[in-house]
Design goal:
This protein is α+β, with helices and mostly antiparallel strands and 429 residues long. It has 2 domains: 4-72; 79-130 and 146-427, Aminoglycoside 3'-phosphotransferase, Chain: A, domain 2, CATH 3.90.1200. It has helices at 11-21, 78-86, 88-109, 152-174, 197-208, 217-226, 230-238, 284-293, 297-321, 331-340, 342-351, 353-357, 374-390, 392-405, 410-427, and strands spanning 28-35, 48-58, 61-72, 120-124, 130-134, 141-142, 247-249, 258-263, 266-272, 279-281. The protein has a 5-stranded antiparallel beta sheet with strand order 1-2-3-5-4, sandwiched between helices. α8 packs parallel to α11. The termini are far apart. InterPro entries: CHK_kinase-like, EcKL, Kinase-like_dom_sf. It holds the Pfam family EcKL. This is CHK kinase-like domain-containing protein. Residues 131-321 form the CHK kinase-like domain.
Length: 429
């Protein structure tokens, strides 16, 4: 059934599409339907995503059926205007139309072919901006809706392909490409400081419900003290680089944006979708986001260092293969940077992970501040306490880890660190 955003999908539109992009002639549309997607997208998407079934005949085809998925920028209402102002949908168009083809060119030169996303059938701009994808489930790709999170094998392969994506972007940036200019700002940026209501409330909700969540009293006190400085620190972490090394991050890299393909019991491949929050910055953005929101907690506890090793190994191998000439972090430097920037991961663990880990989303997380709406904050206020209680064990475990790392002592250590720096500076005079 068509809706306000898909009224343009009619027999004429489908006839032209099949003739232009499926190589058929004299197409006649017999029947078609527009339905919610089988797996593409989720309750968290801001764009209109639909699955289209078409039965048709053609010059050399008596009858055939095709299915594809459309992702369309809303045509009316408040969200339509927000997309127009923010340019977030344009980011996704740019990824598929320009960035990925550049990646493919570079990979082809070294004899590699890596599919990062489902195949694109068409990109159009009238009557609204939209993308038509293959129905990737027809090729055996599926989202893993396991409530426990991704297993070790799924996590490793996801991070290895992410590393190849990051490496390809670093090579493109080294060439000085203009194709990446629109990806300069992501979730946490000084320009979005006045749109942090969701994150402020999500953090406050943890503090206010700390007793019910079984959070240690000493940690509770640190959380309260940290609340006054945590957002500026997260912005600093998010906009940083590792010794100048930056990549194009997916920006919303978690379970529901990753498709997995199995052959029997063997995991063969993964594909990524939804690049509306793509951003240039430290690779820790995607690493922290994925580790906190997607990896099964038992895997995270037992194999975190191994996962980081596999990511770094794939990153360094691909950078070298692509002829990257710049500096990139060693495994040790990456690990040190993860400690240094652990406030960002800590913040993800409290304000995003509980809401993205549950099987049935109840709260739309404001990972795109440019599309922030008051109703999302109200959802958080209505359902946040329930979701946090469902994630009680995860929150406790992560807070203990961050406390042991010293992440929660940032505010208390600031003056001490500043004093040490001043002493060193004085010694040089």
């Amino acid at each position: 059934m068509s809706n306000e955003n898909t009224k343009f999908i009619n027999s004429l539109f489908l006839k032209n599409l099949i003739e232009q992009h499926y190589g058929q002639k004299e197409v006649k549309i017999k029947t078609y339907s527009v339905e919610p997607p089988s797996e593409y997208g989720s309750a968290l998407t801001r764009a209109s995503i639909n699955r289209v079934f078409v039965k048709y005949s053609a010059q050399n085809v008596k009858e055939d059926v095709i299915t594809f998925v459309t992702k369309v920028k809303p045509t009316k209402g408040e969200l339509s205007e927000e997309f127009r102002v923010s340019g977030d949908f344009a980011k996704e168009i740019q990824i598929y139309q320009t960035v990925l083809p550049e990646f493919n060119k570079a990979l082809k030169k070294i004899g590699e072919k890596i599919d990062f996303t489902p195949n694109i059938v068409s990109i159009f701009s009238s009557p609204t901006d939209g993308i038509i994808f293959e129905e990737v489930t027809n090729r055996g790709y599926h989202i893993q809706f396991d409530k426990t999170g991704l297993n070790y094998e799924q996590s490793v392969l996801s991070l290895q392909k992410l590393a190849c994506f990051h490496a390809s972007s670093a090579v493109l940036m080294e060439k000085g490409s203009d194709d990446l200019e629109m990806f300069a700002k992501g979730t946490f940026h000084n320009d979005f400081k006045n749109k942090m209501e969701y994150f402020n409330e999500a953090y406050r909700m943890v503090v206010d419900n700390a007793n019910g969540l079984g959070i240690d009293g000493a940690i509770q006190q640190k959380l309260r003290e940290f609340s006054f400085k945590v957002v500026p620190k997260v912005i600093d972490d998010y906009t940083s680089a590792i010794k100048g090394f930056r990549v194009l991050n997916h920006g919303d890299f978690y379970t529901r944006n990753i498709f997995f393909k199995y052959k029997g019991n063997e995991l063969m491949d993964v594909l990524f979708v939804d690049f509306q929050n793509a951003v240039i910055g430290t690779p820790l953005i995607d690493l922290f986001y994925f580790l906190q929101t997607s990896v099964a907690t038992n895997v995270l506890a037992s194999s975190r260092d191994e996962l980081i090793y596999f990511y770094h190994d794939a990153l360094s191998t691909m950078l070298q293969s692509l002829g990257y000439k710049g500096q990139f972090p060693s495994l040790n430097e990456l690990q040190v940077e993860m400690l240094k920037r652990s406030t960002m991961e800590f913040y993800f663990s409290l304000t995003l992970a509980p809401y993205l880990r549950i099987p049935q989303p109840r709260v739309i997380t404001a990972v795109q501040p440019s599309l922030y709406k008051e109703e999302y904050l109200q959802q958080l206020k209505n359902h946040g306490k329930t979701v946090l209680s469902m994630s009680k064990d995860f929150i406790q475990g992560q807070l203990k880890r961050f406390d042991a790392l010293g992440t929660l002592d940032y505010t208390g250590d600031e003056s001490r660190i500043r004093g040490i720096k001043n002493r060193f500076a004085a010694a040089r005079i």
